[in-house]
Structures are given as structure tokens and as C-alpha cells.
Amino acid sequence: xxxxxxxxxxxxxxxxxxxxxxxxxxxxxxxxxxxxxxxxxxxxxxxxxxxxxxxxxxxxxxxxxxxxxxxxxxxxxxxxxxxxxxxxxxxxxxxxxxxxxxxxxxxxxxxxxxxxxxxxxxxxxxxxxxxxxxxxxxxxxxxxxxxxxxxxxxxxxxxxxxxxxxxxxxxxxxxxxxxxxxxxxxxxxxxxxxxxxxxxxxxxxxxxxxxxxxxxxxxxxxxxxxxxxxxxxxxxxx
Length: 238
Description:
The protein has about 240 residues and is of the alpha/beta class. It has 6 helices and 10 strands; from the N terminus they run E-E-E-H-E-E-H-E-H-H-H-E-H-E-E-E.
């Protein structure tokens, strides 16, 4: 699908089957996908299309039933659990729909936890500045709005300076205005850190911010398009 040899992540023929008794559900039906260095990709599709299953496999949180998945020169299909843990810890930043912040820790402390996992981590102050929260360092999650909590979660994800930033419905729990602020934070991080960023969403309005849009349907990439011009977060209307 237009991949170069320098793809950060290279997937071919990914399938994922779930068995319940004698019933087999095919969540992925042969996904071909390449993510290039520094690009921002939106994977767009309805609920139940397999997007989150793909997210989990790309992030090393799950393994496919069959297929090929290469991170740079690392074969993730044949990786053991220790290697997958290292991949998740050192190379992938995750942003989920729900923020998963520790309520007893401040924004600064939630982000600083990453420094215990990787040696090259940004300071909490640097990461929170990237998402515009330098004035909220010592606030607890209960003192932050939903959008601010999501931006703390983004700061936590990017503090490890990941090669790959995976975002699963990052605006799904937010209203329109707050969603725009969160998308702007993701765009700023993508531009400043050059982390390859994949946003998985059912919200078609977000597609315009991407370099490429992959339309996901029934467990497959149904089509792909490249935006000639990208819209800003402020221009998103949904």
C-alpha cells in the first residue's frame, strides 16, 4: 500500500479470529498496512469493524491469528512476551478513549511515571508543556476537565518519545470544542516530535487532519486516500 523500505510498522495479511464454542468470529480479514516515519494516519470505520482489534495488535497488546507484522527490523509475530513488553514500553505510546489517570497523583506525577520505564523520557514538565498544560502541573485528575485529563494522558504517552503513537477514539468521550483542543494537542505533538501517529476513530470529521486516511470495513482496509491539504483542529466540524 505504497510503503517504503523505511516503514516504521509493516503489516501484511493480518487476521484475527475469536472462537466462542463452535462459532468463529473473524475480526480481521487480511489487513495490509504500512505506517511511515512521522506521518499522521486516520483509520476510519464504524463500531464493530475491527479497528480496536487492529489497534491492539499494532501496539503489541494482542497477537494476530496469522499474518506478518514487522516493527522496523523486529518480527513481532515471532516475538516472545518479554520482547513484546519491551516493544510496548520503549517504542509505543498509547492514548485511549478513557484517560486511565491515577486519581491520587497530580498531572506531573502521572506523567513522571513514564520515566521509570524508559531512560530517554522527557521530563513531566516538558511533556505537559507540549500539550499546553504547564499551568496544571500540580492539579489532580478530579480538578481537571475531561479534555485536560486527556491531554495529560497524551503527555504521558509522548513522554517516552515513542516511535509510534496509537490513539483509540481519543475524542470519543468529549464534546466538540474539547475534542478540537485534544486533536490540536495530537497535531502539535506529531509536528514537534515526528512520532508516527495513528488515530483510530469512527468520527469522519477528523479525517481531514491526516496525511492519509484508511477506511476500515468488515475487518479490512477497504480504501485509502491521501489528503492534498490538511485541515487544522479549529476547522473540524462535527
